[in-house]
Amino acid sequence: MSIRISYYPGCSGKGTSSEYETSTTGVCQALDVDLVEIPDWSCCGSTPAHTVNHVLSSALSARNLTLAEQEGFDTVTTPCPSCLSNLKIAEHKMRKESFREAVNELLDQPYGGGVDTKSVLQVLVENVGLDKVRERVKTPLEGLKVACYYGCIMNRPPEVMDFDDHEHPMAMDNLMEAIGAEVIPFPLKVECCGASFGIPQQNIVTTLSGKLLEVAKGLGVDALVTACPLCQMNLDLRQGQINAAQGTQHSLPIFYFTQLMAKAFDLSDAVQGMKRLIVNPQKALAKIGQADKEIA
Amino acid sequence: MRIGVFICHCGSNIAGTVDCAKVADAAKAFPDVVHAEDTMYACSEPGQQGIIDAIHEKNLTGVVVASCTPRMHEPTFRRAVERAGLNKYMFEMANIREHVSWIGKDKELNTNKAIDLVMMAAEKLRHNAPLMAKKFDINKRVLIIGGGVAGIQAALDCAEGGLEVVLVEKTTSIGGKMAKLDKTFPTVDCSCCILGPKMVDVAQHPNITLYAHAEVEEVNGYIGNFEIRIKQKTTYVDWEKCTGCGLCMEKCPSKKSYDHFNNGVGTTTAINIPFPQAIPKKAKIDAEYCRMFTKGKCGVCAKVCPTGAISFEMTDTEVTENVGAIVAATGYDLFDHAKYPEYGAGKYPDVITSIQYERLMSASGPTSGHIKRPSDGKEPKNVVFIQCVGSRDKSVNRPYCSGFCCMYTAKQAILTKDHIPDSRSFVFYMDIRSPGKDYDEFVRRSIEQYDTQYIRGRVSLIYPQGDKMIVRGADTLAGAQVEVEADLVVLAVGAESAAGAPQLAEKLRISYDSYGFYMESHPKLKPVETNTAGVFLAGACQGPKDIPSSVGQGSAAAAKVLSLFSKDQLESDPQIALVNASRCIGCYKCVETCPFGAVKEEQDRFNNPKARVIETICQGCGVCTVTCPQSAIQLQHFTDNQILAEVKALCPSMMVKN
Amino acid sequence: MPVYDGKELRIVGFLCNWCSYGGADTAGVARFHQATDLRIIRVPCSGRIDPLFILKAFQGGAAGVLVSGCHPRDCHYAEGNYYARRRLELLKRFLPVTGIDPERFEYTWVSASEGPRWQHVVQTFTDRIHKLGPAPLLSEPLTDAEMVEFQRQVEAGRGCGCHI
């Protein structure tokens, strides 16, 4: 039974995290999830908008929800936790009539309300189910030790996000286990990576993300698995900066969870994206006998 | 009826703002009032004598006193009219002090109001009828549920007072939580050394019958005459034969059984005696781990037992005991910290609970009193204590303070230093709550003499790094985030009501709060009574309590039982519901609504269904009276007619033109 | 007794013995000044209060009726006030049907320790009733002269006087 769902890729997916985007679409296709991209989608409002103007920020999200609504969908899915957070919070706030009216003032077409947003992770765990994921696995990732890092906003605030435990989420852990990886419990799985402070105040990111890498290293994992383009960027792209700032020598690959799923599903196109990772994943992949010359 | 009215001046308390003489004058005009006077202090000796004399001289058959609140002196005046030969229920009070003179200054309005109140009282009195308290025999035996320190104290006090005591304990040994503790605050004396002798006294006292590893199944009856069904759970060991020699424990091959007494610190054998001082010192087989039950073969214990006490076929049995009073002393359980995922939810071996730490420190514990951390057996140097785990936290539905954690944490910090002199203890706390004799001094000692570092703030996360646990929290006094590297983290878990407490409360027909703690009759003045007559409370089943308070309550409950049993017969309060059988249609709505199960379904001699009130159970709330479609069941002394008489006195139907 | 014209209105209170009557006592002991209109009838439990008592009071000319019991969960009789709450809520919704302004009726919960709360309850309820004024008469009452004539005829053995 296939699932048809409205899809909001978000700006990162079309740019810095295109490997997340390709692996997400690939994995969803493999699991009979039909992602219908919202036509003419626009920015969700992300980091800067809501710090300046709540109504404007929500209007940006609401525009996309309205477009999905017009296509006849009641649920939107997005791979990016930032987009997820904005879309969900906008919907949540607009349940208050006065706020919805203020937002609708700014929109060409008013938002009717009631469009739910789910992360791709949530769709895979709740709508597709771990059993189906297990069935689809071609090459189990046996021998690969990973820790799952959810980031700070995937499950927070709990009353809005309404998915998994906000202090101790397990969705990604279970998913990784389903594709055969050995999952080591990661105590800092919902800690902050420093987020967008990488631009104005880099030392915050090097300290916080440095801590994540330090603890992950202590656990003896081969890789960290993320679900967030910004977390991935901080941990992967900035790993060199972290090493320089902290005097460490980390070389820990940072995968998107969809990349590892693609790997287990033998989706060669999607696996291609691993080339784009900054920290070379070859050593980790060698663990599962999958070192790939193409990727290198 | 010949009514006498007495208006009390209460010195100037009433007379200051009420014209008492005018009230008395007005009262003379009320129906059936044959005598009215004002008096200086009605409750004083001459005042009471004045009432008695008037009853004799004027042949009064009913008395109204207008004075203070009936909650104060109703019993006093009732005794006075009884001394004069009247039934004590032929008396009414008008509250003209708390409800009149003390709340208004306008003398005219006050006087008018006082006259109204006296009229209401007189009108009600005209509908009063003499009520007789019934007497009934009582069974002078007492059931005590729970063999912790509160139950032990209650049992010993009752037994010493000459009562036969039935003590029911859920586990295989009495002693409760106190038996698990290493030392006690603030004296730091050995817990088992002070409790042990009391436990032995229980075992040896001729008046005490102990049912260990047993539970109360059913409670029937009422004050003075309860019938209790007790389930004696199977132990697979014949306790008549078991001598407690412990040979079976030595030979049992299943050595990885969960150790309940040590709260999972270390393991024990499938057949075990929980601890050396156990009372009764008898073995029990844990069927979950015993190879005979899990694999179907073994029987080593049966072979080695010198008295042949092992019986794998043994089943639960039941006993019935008749008692006259019940003391619930079921104690508390500790909060399950798995609800705190940020503290590891129980998955880090070196994050343990305070009771587990007690067992680690105890000389009779699994490590013989050497503090070794569970993961690698190393002696910890940095120990972090986190307070209020499951206390004062709305997010886990435990908004209350457990009361004793601040103190036991201070004690554990002191003991840590005693055990490991080069160790350091850190305590994350919200507020230090140490009211009690020598309590705050004890905490200061922990801080000042034992160098315990107290950090005011909550812990947000515990995570492992190498072989350390990193404890991240806020230091709200310094306004900074702090991280402490710990070798061992001890969670000061709070108290919650014992598992199964609400179910037992329902059997006992007592109320409990939303957390499962039993409700006392009055939070200040009746702390060990319940709203069900004959059922008393002792210890932490009523709310978190430390040892001195629990012992105090155990004795208090025993004193209540002893004073209850000091009479051979009990008098029932006649202000209870009564069924007029000729009006009763047997709909049994009253049976359904009675909060106490005091109304029983019966049949009259023509087999018509009728309700009957059991006088000793009825508490006199009157919910049934309002429920009855036939007005057949009436709360005596507060009948429909009596209350309506008061209403009519205030709001007489008006004469109107047609 | 006559209600003091212009100064007082007839307000009847039904209070449970254990909480609210105690609360009123506590307010008295603390000398919390209150309006004098209220006359309190003590019952063991708010669950003892038959809604018909309240209607009887209104029928007899009460300008307001106030009921107060233990806070929910705090009932001395475990659950009497739950019964009261249902009955009284139902009565409140039913009052308009009878032609009685439901604003003239209120029920509340006051514990024995809540003296200040009791003072507040009495004061606000009394103020409210004073704003509403005396209870509207169901029919015109007899004048004093007619009352005297009525009594004279009754005394003269002329029956009940319903048809004078």
From TrEMBL, chain A:
Pfam families in the record: CCG (PF02754)
Name of the protein described by the UniProt record: Heterodisulfide reductase subunit B
Keyword Membrane: no
Any one Gene Ontology molecular-function term assigned to this protein's record: oxidoreductase activity
PANTHER family, per database record: COB--COM HETERODISULFIDE REDUCTASE SUBUNIT B 1 (PTHR42947:SF1)
Species per Swiss-Prot/TrEMBL record: Desulforhopalus singaporensis
Keywords recorded for this protein, A-Z: Oxidoreductase
Gene3D superfamilies in the cross-refs: 1.20.1050.140
Cysteine-rich domain ranges (all copies): 6-88, 146-236
Automatic annotation (TrEMBL), chain B:
Family: Belongs to the HdrA family.
Ranges for domain 4Fe-4S ferredoxin-type: 233-264, 281-315, 575-604, 609-638
Superkingdom field: Bacteria
InterPro entries: 4Fe4S_Fe-S-bd, 4Fe4S_Fe_S_CS, FAD/NAD-bd_sf, HdrA-like
Gene3D superfamilies in the cross-refs: 3.30.70.20, FAD/NAD(P)-binding domain, NAD(P)-binding Rossmann-like Domain
Protein name: Heterodisulfide reductase subunit A
Cofactor(s) essential for the protein: FAD
Transmembrane segments: none
A GO term for molecular function: 4 iron, 4 sulfur cluster binding
Keywords, in A-Z order: 4Fe-4S, FAD, Flavoprotein, Iron, Iron-sulfur, Metal-binding, Oxidoreductase
Organism the protein comes from: Desulforhopalus singaporensis
Automatic annotation (TrEMBL), chain C:
Domain F420-non-reducing hydrogenase iron-sulfur subunit D: start-end pairs: 11-133
Keyword tags: Iron, Iron-sulfur, Metal-binding, Oxidoreductase
Highest taxon, organism lineage: Bacteria
Single GO molecular function: metal ion binding
This protein's record includes keyword Oxidoreductase: yes
Parts forming coiled coils: none
Xref: Pfam families: FlpD
Annotated protein name in UniProt: Coenzyme F420-reducing hydrogenase, delta subunit
